[in-house]
Amino acid sequence: MSSDFETYEQDFAVLTAEITGRIGKVPKLVGDEKKQMVANVEKQLEEARELLEQMELEVREIPPQSRGMYSSRMRSYKQEMGKLEADFKRSRIAYSDEVRNELLGDDGNSSENQRAHLLDNTERLERSSRRLEAGYQIAVETEQIGQEMLENLSHDREKIQRARERLREADANLGKSSRILTGMLRRYIQQQIKLV
């Protein structure tokens, strides 16, 4: 079950990396090249959405005790998908800005510098958010492992308490048996003394 999910996960990672690369090229293209690139990105975004749906179906098939880790991964993949769609929209707007600047005769150097600066900042933010998401996933997985360990320890404690109770009962029974045998031995000795 989880192996299918991981296969979809790998396909999603490869696909999103390709989409990210193509989105970066969209503002630099013109005419038919740009249209073709936009069409390719839209097709790949649809494929990525389908992969997410397949992954969600796989998560539903996973037993509830193991589902949490996969659900948190799904949340981060959906966020990544949303970011890709937003970046794609921005890249198309950036292209429109360049065309407008050319038509109006504006000098695009300062806006290009600002755009480059904004893109750098966006990339930095995305890297940071990916690190945060990875840290969150590790924290969730660690919490689940800790919970499982606590449950196991609780079961072991119950077993030890039951074994201790059995030992107390056995000890009490041995004490009774010892007293009975001592009493029988006394009576036997007293009878032997009377016979003598």
TrEMBL record:
<dbReference type="GO" id="GO:0005789">
    <property type="term" value="C:endoplasmic reticulum membrane"/>
</dbReference>
<dbReference type="GO" id="GO:0005484">
    <property type="term" value="F:SNAP receptor activity"/>
</dbReference>
<dbReference type="InterPro" id="IPR007705">
    <property type="entry name" value="Vesicle_trsprt_v-SNARE_N"/>
</dbReference>
<dbReference type="GO" id="GO:0006886">
    <property type="term" value="P:intracellular protein transport"/>
</dbReference>
<dbReference type="GO" id="GO:0006896">
    <property type="term" value="P:Golgi to vacuole transport"/>
</dbReference>
<feature type="compositionally biased region" description="Basic and acidic residues">
    <location>
        <begin position="114"/>
        <end position="126"/>
    </location>
</feature>
<comment type="subunit">
    <text>Interacts with distinct SNARE complexes that contain either STX5 or STX6. Interacts with NAPA and, to a lesser extent, with NAPG. Identified in a complex containing STX6, STX12, VAMP4 and VTI1A.</text>
</comment>
<comment type="similarity">
    <text>Belongs to the VTI1 family.</text>
</comment>
<keyword id="KW-0175">Coiled coil</keyword>
<keyword id="KW-0653">Protein transport</keyword>
<dbReference type="GO" id="GO:0048280">
    <property type="term" value="P:vesicle fusion with Golgi apparatus"/>
</dbReference>
<dbReference type="GO" id="GO:0012507">
    <property type="term" value="C:ER to Golgi transport vesicle membrane"/>
</dbReference>
<keyword id="KW-0472">Membrane</keyword>
<protein>
    <recommendedName>
        <fullName>Vesicle transport through interaction with t-SNAREs homolog 1A</fullName>
    </recommendedName>
</protein>
<keyword id="KW-0813">Transport</keyword>
<dbReference type="GO" id="GO:0042147">
    <property type="term" value="P:retrograde transport, endosome to Golgi"/>
</dbReference>
<dbReference type="GO" id="GO:0005829">
    <property type="term" value="C:cytosol"/>
</dbReference>
<feature type="coiled-coil region">
    <location>
        <begin position="31"/>
        <end position="61"/>
    </location>
</feature>
<dbReference type="GO" id="GO:0000139">
    <property type="term" value="C:Golgi membrane"/>
</dbReference>
<dbReference type="InterPro" id="IPR038407">
    <property type="entry name" value="v-SNARE_N_sf"/>
</dbReference>
<feature type="domain" description="T-SNARE coiled-coil homology">
    <location>
        <begin position="117"/>
        <end position="184"/>
    </location>
</feature>
<dbReference type="GO" id="GO:0031201">
    <property type="term" value="C:SNARE complex"/>
</dbReference>
<dbReference type="InterPro" id="IPR010989">
    <property type="entry name" value="SNARE"/>
</dbReference>
<dbReference type="GO" id="GO:0000149">
    <property type="term" value="F:SNARE binding"/>
</dbReference>
<dbReference type="GO" id="GO:0031902">
    <property type="term" value="C:late endosome membrane"/>
</dbReference>
<keyword id="KW-1133">Transmembrane helix</keyword>
<feature type="region of interest" description="Disordered">
    <location>
        <begin position="103"/>
        <end position="126"/>
    </location>
</feature>
<keyword id="KW-0812">Transmembrane</keyword>
<dbReference type="Pfam" id="PF12352">
    <property type="entry name" value="V-SNARE_C"/>
</dbReference>
<dbReference type="GO" id="GO:0016236">
    <property type="term" value="P:macroautophagy"/>
</dbReference>
<dbReference type="Pfam" id="PF05008">
    <property type="entry name" value="V-SNARE"/>
</dbReference>
<dbReference type="InterPro" id="IPR000727">
    <property type="entry name" value="T_SNARE_dom"/>
</dbReference>
<dbReference type="GO" id="GO:0006891">
    <property type="term" value="P:intra-Golgi vesicle-mediated transport"/>
</dbReference>
<keyword id="KW-0333">Golgi apparatus</keyword>
